[in-house]
Amino acid sequence: MSQEYISDLIKRLGEPILPYGRLQQSKELLDGECDDYSSKTEDHSNNGNPNLEYSIRVEECADKLELPTERKFLWLIDFDEDKNLRLRMIPEQTPNENRKHKPIVCHSNFTQCGEALQGGECWWCNELETIFVNPFSGRYGAVSVEQWTAVLEFFEFIGYKKVIDSNIIKWEKQN
Amino acid sequence: MATVNFGIIDDGFPVTQKTQLEFNDIQHLTGIDEWGFETSLRDLNVELISKSIHLKKRINVTGFYNPEFFFNSKKKSWDYISFDWEYKMQQADKEPEDYLLEILKNTQAKIYVFTGWEKRIHISSIIDSGEFKAFRDENRLEMLEKNEDDSVAQMLQSVTELFERGEELSFGEGTILIKPSRFILDSDDFWMLRSLLGSDNIKSILSEEKSSVIDEGTIHLMFEKSKFQFFIDKENSVLSASKNQLVESKFGVLDELTMSEALSIFGIEKLVEAREKGFTTIK
Question: Which residues pair with A95 in a beta bridge?
Answer without folding.
Answer: A104
